[in-house]
Amino acid sequence: MAETITLTTWAEVREAFRAKDLRQAGYTEGAVVMADCLLDLHGDAHRERRRLENRLFRRETFAHWEHHVLGATITATLDPFVAARRGDLAVIGYRSAMNLTATIAGIDHDVADADATERLYGIVKTFSEGATIAHSTRDKAEVRAEVRAAMDRFAIELYEPARARRRALVVSVEAGELDEGALPHDVLTTLVRHAGRLDLADDVLFREICFYLQAGAHSTANAFVHTVDRILGDPAIAAAARDDLALVQRCMHEALRLDPASPVAVRTPLADVNLSSGRVLPAGSTVVCDLMAANRDPEVFGADAASFVPGRPVPDGVAPWGMSFGGGTHACIGAELDGGLEQPAVDSDEGCPAGHLYGTVAVMAHAFLAAGGRADPDDPAQLDPTSTRRHYTRYPVRF
Q1: Backbone dihedral region of 43: left (phi > 0), alpha (psi from -120 to 50 degrees) or beta?
Q2: At what angle do helices 89-105 and 114-131 cross, to 10 degrees?
Q3: Strands 382-383, 392-394: parallel, antiparallel or unpaired by DSSP?
Q4: What is the pLDDT of residue 197?
Q5: H/E segment holding residue 374
Q6: What is the pLDDT of residue 346?
Q7: pLDDT at residue number 354
Q8: What is the pTM of this model?
Q9: Residue 232, helix vs strand vs coil
Q10: Distance of alpha carbon 35 from alpha carbon 376, whole angstroms
Q11: Closest to 34 (Cα-Cα) out of 266, 281, 338
Q12: How crowded is residue 285: how many other Cβ atoms within 10 Å of its Cβ?
């Protein structure tokens, strides 16, 4: 049986993320939806696909999504809950993130269509169960069967029509019948146009879109819930945050540090890896990078590292969100979309510059707070009992 080594310090986890001979190994059990997707690739295959998708995931594209797409998406998602004066924070977060992620992935979806949103919500939630199956306490064969059924439904109802439309547009652009501007700015269009160059099989292209849809929705929704939960836990911060998006972003960065969407990252050394600490990671072993521990390392974040302190000072070269977006070649490709840009130091006279990106999570959290959102005092939130990850299945709220 392969040896399991757990890294808990900031320095060792950061070095492990940068080691070229450590291969991604955290999604082996979730291969039903994750096999051969960007997050699971290694080496040249990963480099080529990442280079191609990086063309889409650029700062100006993030700015367009945040400033021109996100607001309407959140409004369409949030309004029915505000009108009803109650809802569930986990549902609000997941639906908001899912609607935006569908746009990014390249799935044509009307966010104002309640029935369509409900169907897509069920599909994407099932994808997320498949991707995080390693942390599930349910029968894994049953989970995989549910994921396959959801993927079949998704392919027929949404994916195939979206791909056919994009293929037709690509053909028209390449024939000179349409301008480049006619092409949607999304992952599916990018991959359809360059599938030949990447030697991308149809089933791999399909899973890549499933991956983007679930990864964006799942991680963003979790970060949103944890951010709001941390803010609501401090009445003074909550009162100020309703009118202060910059404060919400600082709270979000601190919540990300304390509650990373993936509490651990798993790697397998393809060759012996020698860390500067003197520790050896033998080839074939299982290396667990404990992000919860590394993000609370007192040597980096101070003696109060386990406390929620928005805007806490961090050393040069350390992000305020810790390593919750990963690191090295597998750092989250949408980190700036979710987390925005770092702000000037809180003791600086500089405010956030014009056009600053606050990040999807902060904008979502601020919209919820500005709408008068608060925890339901008569119905406490509940953590998911079927997962070892810390995320909420129920979080009743009122407006």
Answers
A1: left
A2: 90
A3: antiparallel
A4: 82
A5: strand 374-375
A6: 61
A7: 76
A8: 0.90
A9: helix
A10: 40
A11: 266
A12: 16
Reported as half-sphere exposure (CB side, CA atoms, 13 A), residue 234 has a value of 16
Strand partners, 266: 288
The helix (run of H) or strand (run of E) holding residue 281 is: strand 280-281
Element at 126 (helix H, strand E) = helix 114-131
The mean pLDDT values, 10 residues at a time, for the chain of 399 residues are 91 96 84 86 90 87 88 92 97 92 92 87 90 83 93 96 97 95 92 86 92 89 96 96 97 97 92 96 96 97 97 95 93 91 72 86 97 96 80 93
What pLDDT is recorded for position 196? 82
Burial code of 245-283, b = ≥16 C-beta within 10 A, e = fewer?
A: bbbbbbbbbbbbbbbbbbbbbbbbbeeebeeeeeeebee
CA–CA separation, 311 and 347 (whole Å): 9
Q: Are 56 and 190 in contact (CB under 8 A)?
A: yes
Compute the distance between CA of residue 374 and CA of residue 368 in angstroms, rounded to an integer: 9
CATH homologous superfamily for the domain 4-367: Cytochrome P450 (1.10.630.10)
- With a CB cutoff of 8 Å and minimum separation 6, the contacts of 386 are 136, 137, 138
Beta bridge partners of 269: 22
Encoded tokens for 291: 């992000």
> Rounded to an integer, what distance in angstroms lies between the CA atom of residue 344 and that of residue 290?
29
Q: Which of 86, 135, 122, 110 is nearest to 396 (CA)?
A: 86
Helix (H, G, I), strand (E, B) or coil at 382: strand
The C-alpha atoms of residue 160 and residue 166 are separated, in whole angstroms, by: 10
Closest to 359 (Cα-Cα) out of 333, 340, 335: 340
- 52/47 Cα distance (integer angstroms): 9
- Which residue from 175, 168, 205 is spatially nearest to 187, judged by alpha carbons? 205
| Residue 319 burial (10 A CB sphere; 0-12, 13-18, 19+) | middle
CA dist 180 → 60, 170, 297 (Å): 17, 9, 48
Tokens of 127: 């994808």
Name 157's Cβ contacts closer than 8 Å, sequence gap at least 6. Answer: 119
E strand or H helix that includes residue 265: strand 264-269
Classify strands 264-269 and 22-24 as parallel, antiparallel or unpaired. antiparallel
